[in-house]
Design brief:
Elements: H1 7-15, E1 19-21, H2 22-27, H3 32-40, E2 45-48, E3 51-53, H4 61-72, E4 77-78, H5 80-86, E5 105-110, E6 121-126, H6 129-132, H7 144-154, H8 158-170, H9 176-184, H10 192-203, H11 209-220, E7 228-235, E8 238-246, E9 251-256, H12 266-277, E10 282-287, H13 288-293, H14 295-308
Parallel strand pairs: 5-6, 9-10
Antiparallel strand pairs: 1-3, 2-3, 4-5, 7-8, 8-9
Helix pairs in contact: 5-7, 7-8, 7-9, 8-10, 9-10, 11-14
C-alpha cells in the first residue's frame, strides 16, 4: 500500500530530486515499518546505504548525486569533476564526464570526521570545506573557484589545469580576480605560480591553451602589437567574436583548436570569414602545430600582413634561431 507522505517530507523530496535518507523519513513522522514496506514492495529503492529514491524505475543523474552527498553526511559537498559537471564545465569533454548515470561521483567531506563507503563515489577530505562549500546551491557543491583549483591540483600537466580555468572564465562563470582570490587562500597550491602568471592574460581574453600560446609565443615574443581579444563584430545581424583582432589593420587572427572548431563547423568558419570580408576585415587562421612549432613563421606572416594593411611593425627575434625578423 502506498505510504501517506507528510507535507514536510513532500517538500524535502522535491528539493532533493525524490531522494531521502532513512533518518529524514523517520524524522518527518514515517514509521520504520512504513519505510521498510515501501522498499519491500519496490515502490522505493535503495541508492546508497540508508538513502532511498522514493520512486521506481531508473534513477536520474540528479537523484544519484543527491544520494551520494546525503550518504556522505552533514556538511558534505559534491566536488572536483562532479561539481564541474554541475557548473557545465564538462560539456564537450570525453564520455564519462558528462551528466549521465554511471559517471564517478566526487564528494568532499570535512577532514575532521569519517564517512561511509559511497557506491560509485570518490571520497575526498578537506580541512577548509566550510569555506569552500557553496552556501546556497543545491545539491551541495564546492564553489566554482575552489572547484577549479581542486581540479588543477589533480591535473597531470599545467595545460590541463589551465584549461579548467579557461572553461570557467570563458563561460563567464567566474573572473580572473575571483580565481586569484581563491588562490591566495591556498599557499601550497600546485601550479600556483604559473596560474597567477597567466590570469592577467585570461582576463584579457586568452580563453584557451592555444590562445595563450599565441599571445606568448607569437605575439609577445616577436614584438607584435597586442590584438584585442574576443572582439565582438556584428555581421548580417549576427554577433560573432574574433579571437584576436588588430583593429587598425582590420586583421582577424583566428585560432582553430579541435574542440572549438571541429570539422563539421568548418563551413561556418568559411561563411564567417566571407561576412568579415564584406566589412573589409581580412581573416587568417592558425592551428595548434602552427602556434607551437612554427611560431616564428606565424609571427612573420602576421607582421607582414599588418605592414601591408598600414600598421607599423618592428619584429624582433625570439631567440638565436628565430627567422621572424628576417
Amino acid at each position: 500500500m502506498p505510504v501517506d507522505v507528510p507535507p514536510g517530507l513532500r517538500e524535502l523530496l522535491v528539493r532533493q530530486s525524490g531522494v531521502i535518507t532513512r533518518r529524514q523519513a523517520l524524522g518527518a513522522g514515517l514509521a520504520a515499518t512504513a519505510v521498510d514496506n515501501q522498499l519491500k514492495s519496490r515502490r522505493w529503492q535503495q541508492l546508497q546505504r540508508g538513502v532511498y529514491a522514493c520512486f521506481s524505475g531508473t534513477p536520474t543523474r540528479d537523484a544519484e548525486l543527491w544520494a551520494a552527498v546525503l550518504r556522505a553526511g552533514e556538511g558534505a559537498a559534491l566536488s572536483h569533476r562532479t561539481a564541474a559537471e554541475l557548473y557545465g564545465l564538462t560539456r564537450g569533454m570525453s564520455r564519462g564526464m558528462s551528466r549521465e548515470p554511471g559517471a564517478p561521483i566526487h564528494v568532499t567531506v570535512p577532514a575532521s570526521r569519517r564517512a561511509g563507503i559511497i557506491r560509485g563515489g570518490v571520497l575526498h577530505f578537506s580541512g577548509s570545506l566550510e569555506r569552500t562549500r557553496h552556501p546556497v546551491l543545491l545539491p551541495p557543491r564546492t564553489r566554482i573557484d575552489d572547484t577549479l583549483l581542486d581540479l588543477a591540483q589533480m591535473s597531470a600537466t599545467f595545460d590541463e589545469a589551465f584549461d579548467w580555468v579557461c572553461r570557467a572564465v570563458g563561460g563567464r562563470l567566474t573572473t580572473p580576480a575571483h580565481v586569484r582570490a581563491a588562490l591566495q587562500a591556498r599557499p601550497r597550491m600546485r601550479w600556483r605560480i604559473d596560474l597567477l602568471a597567466v590570469l592577467a592574460d585570461v582576463g584579457d581574453g586568452a580563453h584557451s591553451n592555444l590562445e595563450l600560446r599565441y599571445v606568448r609565443k607569437v605575439e609577445r615574443a616577436h614584438g607584435l602589437p597586442p590584438a584585442r581579444r574576443q572582439m565582438k563584430i556584428v555581421t548580417a545581424g549576427r554577433v560573432r567574436y574574433v579571437d584576436n583582432f588588430y583593429e587598425e589593420a582590420k586583421l582577424a587572427v583566428e585560432l582553430d583548436g579541435r574542440a572549438a572548431h571541429p570539422p563539421e563547423r568548418r563551413w561556418d568558419d568559411s561563411h564567417r570569414d566571407n561576412e568579415h570580408a564584406s566589412l573589409g576585415i581580412m581573416t587568417v587562421r592558425y592551428n595548434w602545430p602552427d602556434v607551437n612549432y612554427r611560431a616564428c613563421a606565424v609571427a612573420a606572416q602576421v607582421g607582414g600582413l599588418l605592414r601591408v594593411r598600414g600598421t607599423a611593425v618592428q619584429l624582433r627575434r625570439c631567440g638565436p634561431s628565430c627567422t621572424a625578423a628576417g
